[in-house]
Amino acid sequence: MDPMRHHSHSHRDHRTSGQVALDACFPYARDILHYPEHVKEEGFETHKVGTILLWGTEEPDVAIDISETLEIKLNALASHASQLSMPRDDMEEFVKRWASRAAERAEGTGYQYAETFRRITFRV
After folding, report:
1. Gyration radius of the chain over CA positions
2. pTM of this prediction?
3. Got the DSSP string for the chain?
4. CA 30 to chain centroid
5. Which of 103, 123, 117 lies closest to 18, judged by CA?
6. How remote is the C-alpha of 101 from its chain's centroid?
7. Phi-psi region of 74 (alpha: psi -120 to 50; beta: other; left: phi over 0)
8. What pLDDT score was predicted for residue 60?
9. Bridge partners of residue 55, in order along the sequence
10. Domain spanning 12-121: which superfamily?
11. How do residues 18-43 score in pLDDT, each as one tens digit?
12. Are residues 29 and 78 in contact, defined by beta-carbon separation less than 8 angstroms?
């Protein structure tokens, strides 16, 4: 999740998880000083993350074709009971709304449905 939003607001937990994921990729994953016990005691090596893709961004620069997997995504979303308080008979409208969002994200890409991301590339 892209933790940096300027035009709209996202849930605090989403912003926090996005920032934690960014920190985990850079600098924590590459820097022995953050978790030296992982190298000493566990034998793990550090890792330099080259690229990350942030979902839920206001400034996407990457589109991924999800046309073949849209139905799987919509079924997964519809099964997310803890996040949905709507009656089952409203599911058809829910699925239409999410399919419409994926179609909007695909505009100008040549895809029927897409997910969009903001790419950050690190020097490795």
Report:
1. 18
2. 0.80
3. -----SSS---HHHHHHHHHHHHHHTTGGG-TTT-HHHHHTT-PPP----EEEEES-SS--EEEE-TTTHHHHHHHHHT-GGG--S-GGGHHHHHHHHHHHHHHHHTTTT-SSEEEEEEEE---
4. 21
5. 117
6. 15
7. alpha
8. 96
9. 117
10. LmbE-like (3.40.50.10320)
11. 999 999 998 899 888 888 888 888 88
12. no
> Looking up tokens 């978790």, which residue turns up?
35
Confidence of residue 16 (pLDDT cuts 50, 70, 90): very high
Which residue has 């942030």 as its token pair? 54
What are residue 32's DSSP bridge partners? none
What is the residue type of 48? K
Q: How many residues does the chain have?
A: 124
What are the structural domain ranges in the chain?
12-121
